[in-house]
Design a protein that fits this description.
heterotrimer; A mainly alpha (348); B alpha/beta (143); C alpha+beta (365); B: 143 residues; alpha/beta; Beta Polymerase, domain 2; five-stranded mixed β-sheet; two-stranded parallel ribbon; 3 helices; 29% strand; C: 365 residues; alpha+beta; Cytochrome-c3 Hydrogenase, chain B; three-stranded antiparallel β-sheet; 8 strands; globular
Chain lengths: 348, 143, 365
């Protein structure tokens, strides 16, 4: 157990000792360890995406009373891999009237911020790639960068459906960024730090979902909207906008959007776990296992919501965001502040 | 449907003939009286045919026959109104201002049979492409 | 010099939710639709012209291919038109079988409507639930006539084949299970807040406008006008059955959606009664070998799942129709769509279109 718990920390330590044996300077050792960490994270993202695509299909199948993928491998687990090869082999189509550079840049630009989010997440005990003291702030500033690339995709495609999809993304993301941030502020006020490790450490005895239930619900709703997942998948809006911003993208370019969606979903769930579910805290199992268990539970929730809810209308979405979520999160913030003051007063 | 109402109308307003038929009430009317008759059929309280079901046309080689099928939701009776029009440059006044339903139905008749509906708001080829030549439901249509 | 310009959004003929090859050009102002223009005819096959070169029995398969979702009713409407012209008596048993088939077809068609409405609002799971039920009806059809989509089951003077032995228990089983299965749809979709927000009060069709535009069928009844050919001008043996005419009064998408459920319920009642009183006997009446119809015209109506379906037949005494015109209910219903969709959001246009339930095979004919 102890071995499993310290598995990744030990691997990093081993690499450090190994390189120290070759008498490399300290800065290079840290750089190599960092690169190893990045490779591990990318590997994690890809494995996660493969599992999640399969899981999503299976859950959709379960809800819709059909088997889902069941041909390739046991219970169809290799279906995603086969699909990836198919997407790699597809013709790369760029529409003649598209803005070539914007069109080409958009998919990687969606994907990069999605990866960058992982830098500050504490995956387990002593398992933070970069322990930033403004970790949470970094997370949200990076996450909002994705909006721009959606707009680039929508504009660059030179397609009316894409453009409408891009406009919807911007409207939606800007409106839901605010309640998202405001909901998180309650936690920050209690902990008094933006460092994600500190936030996890503060939840050693009690998870913040108990202290901040309203904030968690707001976070979950706003995060679903930020992820562009059903019932908030308006930028894609298959039934109205064909495929929204993705309409003109094919092959691997499209797959990058898809991959970014899943990467973002894991990151959002990871932040939710870190902020409200005690991060990697948990008995018996190794900390990182606890972390991923919680993350997958939240992702399961996202998936069930997507496959059972119809899509919301664009103006209802705006009304809901501005007229309900933002006032609610402000009220939550006020209550939290009052609560903290009362707590301090009681303790003297 | 009461034939006497129809005959009353016939004596009062226009030149219409009642065609005996075992299934429905059928009347035939002169082209000039058509719109007026339609107005009466729609608005006269004892007739009140507010639902226009169908408009179609038949090519009888020497003339065209336009057929309107109306139904009265209030009284539950139906009527078939026929109107004979000339074979050369066939045209008739639209009833789409009376019955908005006629708009698409008249378009269809124009598209397939080539009958012009005078003062129709948007007469166009509705089923066939704009550059289609000829009117396929005419008996003299050749591929 | 920058200037504002109108955007024309072309929806269809290849679009996920235009129910086939319907095309409309939308002029949106932001997300609000200011103008809609219908463009139909992508599936036009000239069926009325084909009819003129086919003998009367030969045309039966073409009727299937108009409304492929509710084709039994189309079969029925066509053969009844000819029987009425010829004055043929149809055996009792055949009449009952026809009614059973027509009502099953109606349920199947309404299930497709509910399913597509759900999927057009991105409620994908309901699609599967409705199609699972429809599959059972198709199994029943396959059992009876060997075909699942285009049946050509009805013949002039009767039906093609008698019901197989296993049909009646299977049909009863389906009818008994059906309300419970529909409850699943209600639980998942009908009660959903988002679904209600997207359909309640959307695309309101006032009764006078509905009548003026010749809208018939469930769309008209959802606006509060109780017109159904089965009740108002009973054909076949519909006057023998005890069934209600469901009417709803708001005329919005939600009412049009719910009305389909009411209708399916009533169809189940009709089928139940028909199964209970199904007489023994012949399934085909005496029909001359060569069908020639005395000269004359007839306009015969039946109630399809989309509205009043009319066959206008002109005969010149030969064995082929001189002129056959079909009044497609969705064709006329679609005439109101530009008026109805004006002023709503792009997303509402989709739900309004879905709630009107057009089937393009019959719009374009």
């Amino acid at each position: 157990m102890e071995l499993l718990e310290r598995l990744f920390v030990n691997i990093a330590g081993l690499a450090r000792t190994l390189m120290a044996g070759w008498s490399l300077p300290n800065s290079i050792i840290e750089l190599v360890v960092l690169i190893l960490g990045i490779i591990a994270i990318i590997g994690l993202i890809i494995v996660d995406a493969i599992i999640l695509v399969w899981l999503e299909r299976k859950i959709a199948g379960f809800i819709q009373e059909r088997p889902g993928p069941n041909r390739l491998g046991p219970a169809g687990v290799f279906q995603t891999i086969a699909d990836t090869f198919k997407l790699l082999g597809k013709e790369d189509v760029i529409p003649r009237s598209a803005d070539r550079w914007v069109f080409r840049l958009a998919p990687p630009l969606v994907f990069v911020p999605a990866i960058m989010l992982y830098a500050v997440i504490p995956f387990g005990k002593d398992m933070v790639p970069v322990d930033l003291n403004v970790g949470l702030f970094y997370c949200f500033s990076i996450a909002s960068l994705g909006t721009m690339s959606f707009l680039m995709a929508g504009w660059g495609s030179h397609n009316k459906y894409s453009l409408l999809g891009g406009m919807r993304t911007v409207a939606q993301m800007i409106s839901y960024e605010i309640p998202l941030l405001l909901s998180v502020l309650g936690v920050v006020m209690i902990v008094g730090s933006l460092n994600l490790s500190d936030i996890v450490a503060a939840q050693k005895n009690v998870w913040f979902i108990i202290i901040q239930p309203v904030a968690f619900i707001i976070y979950l709703i706003a995060a679903t909207a930020e992820l562009n997942r059903g019932p908030f998948d308006l930028p894609e809006g298959e039934q109205e906008l064909v495929a929204g911003v993705y309409t003109e993208f094919s092959g691997m370019r499209w797959a990058l959007f898809f991959l970014a969606e899943y990467t973002n979903m894991v990151a959002t769930a990871a932040i939710a776990v870190t902020l409200f579910f005690g991060g990697w805290h948990g008995p018996w199992l190794p900390s990182w296992m606890w972390f991923f268990l919680k993350v997958y539970l939240i992702i399961f929730f996202f998936m069930v919501i997507k496959w059972t809810y119809p899509r919301i209308r664009v103006d209802h979405l705006m009304h809901f965001g501005w007229k309900f979520l933002i006032p609610l999160s402000l009220a939550n913030l006020l209550l939290t502040g009052v609560g903290i003051e009362i707590y301090r007063f009681m303790r003297g | 449907m009461h034939p006497e109402i129809i005959s009353k109308l016939a004596s009062r307003y226009f030149s219409l003939t009642i065609i005996p038929d075992q299934h429905t009430t059928k009347i035939q009317v002169e082209e000039n009286d058509m719109v007026y008759l339609m107005e009466q059929l729609k608005n006269a309280p004892e007739l009140h045919f507010e639902l226009l079901l169908d408009i179609t046309a038949v090519d009888y080689k020497d003339h065209y026959m336009i057929v309107y099928n109306l139904f009265s939701l209030k009284h539950g009776h139906k009527i078939m109104v026929m109107c004979r029009i000339a074979h050369e440059n066939p045209s008739i006044v639209t009833i789409s201002d009376l019955y908005p339903a006629a708009e698409v139905l008249e378009c269809e008749v124009y598209d397939l049979m080539g009958i012009e509906f005078i003062s129709h708001p948007n007469l166009r080829r509705i089923l066939l492409s704009e550059d289609f030549e000829g009117y396929p439901l005419r008996k003299d249509f050749k591929n | 010099m920058p200037r504002t310009q109108e955007l024309n959004l072309n929806m269809g003929p290849q679009h996920p939710s235009t129910h086939g090859v319907f095309r409309c050009v939308i002029t949106p102002d932001g997300e609000t639709v200011t103008r809609v223009e219908n463009h139909i005819g992508y599936l036009h096959r000239g069926i009325e012209k084909i009819a003129e070169s086919k003998t009367y029995p030969q045309f039966i398969p073409y009727t299937d291919r108009m409304d492929y979702l509710c084709s039994m009713v189309y079969n029925q409407g066509y053969v009844e038109t000819i029987e009425k012209m010829l004055g043929i008596e149809v055996p009792e048993r055949a009449e009952y079988i026809r009614v059973i088939m027509a009502e099953l077809s109606r349920i199947a068609s309404h299930l497709v409507m509910v399913a597509t409405m759900a999927i057009d609002l991105a409620g994908t799971s309901n699609w599967m639930y409705c199609f699972r039920e429809r599959e059972k009806i198709l199994d029943l059809f396959e059992m009876t006539c060997g075909s699942r989509m285009t049946f050509s089951y009805m013949r002039i003077g009767g039906v093609a084949e008698d019901l197989p032995e296993e049909f009646i228990p299977a049909c009863r089983k389906f009818i008994n299970e059906f309300p419970e299965k529909m409850n699943e749809v209600h639980e998942l979709l009908t009660g959903n807040e988002i679904f209600q927000a997207r359909t309640k009060g959307i695309g309101i069709l006032p009764p006078d406008m509905a009548v003026a535009y010749g809208v018939t069928g469930p769309n008209l009844r959802a606006s509060g006008v109780p017109y159904d050919v089965r009740k108002n001008q009973p054909y076949s043996i519909y006057d023998r059955f005890d069934f209600k005419l469901p009417v709803r009064f708001n005329g919005d998408c939600f009412d049009r959606y719910l009305l389909r459920f009411d209708e399916m319920e009533q169809s189940c009642r009709i089928i139940e009664q028909a199964l209970d009183s199904l007489p023994e006997g012949e399934i085909k009446g005496k029909v001359p070998k060569m069908i020639k119809i005395p000269p004359g015209e007839i306009y015969h109506q039946v109630e399809s799942s989309k509205g009043a379906l009319g066959f206008f037949l002109v005969s010149d005494g030969s064995n082929k129709p001189y002129r056959l015109h079909v009044r497609g209910p969705s064709f006329v219903n679609m005439g109101v769509f530009p008026e109805l969709a004006k002023g709503w959001k792009i997303q509402d246009v989709i739900s309004i279109l879905a709630s009107l339930d057009p089937v393009l095979g019959e719009v374009d004919r």
